[in-house]
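Bumping with the actual sequence this time:
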Amino acid sequence: MLAGQTVVNQESSGNGGDDAQVPNLEDRNFSPHTWAELQELIAHNKLADLRRKPSDLRRYRQWSDDIARVYGSTINYLCREKLHWEPLPASTLADGPLFACKSSSLFAEPDDFKVLRNDWPYGLTPDITHLVVWLKNQLPIDSENGDLTPQSRQVIDDFIQKTFTRHIGGGDAADRVLWFKNWSSIQSIKAIDHVHVLVRNVPDTLLREWTN
């Protein structure tokens, strides 16, 4: 992927706090996240409490292992098969892929980001859809805790409002969109910046429009 080499697998096992205990549960004992619960977790930045359904988490782990055997890493798979982004020659194995951006400003150019459905969403009630916004640019974060800076949050929030909330429309549109970015210590895919977007009761036509 990088100058004929394979990107080192920079994905951690953490994708929230589910890995240690959820795989040992049965689906019948798992309660999916409701919209109200998600609002609470995101508002208080308790992102480590987000969980997948046990059977989904087990399948995700197996899928990750299979992808690593075929592509070398999930990063390689994402670049080649999902994002169709070619890393720059200056990319290194240690730091992961770098991409040519049309603009240095976040979300200024459509070619510099891509919205996709999350193939392995958290365990959510059926009315909720989990999307991911992948970025070629790097999001500024706090070097001490790995969380977003206030400036980054504002830029992302403006993008979410423009791209998702306004398109949903209606008086309750703002209550049907949530977003978050996992801090570095709990990210499963660290090398390519991405923002999670959750939408509620959104028609498939709009979902297809967002994900092209």
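The tokens above came from a reply further down the thread. Confidence is low (pLDDT under 50) at residues 1-19.
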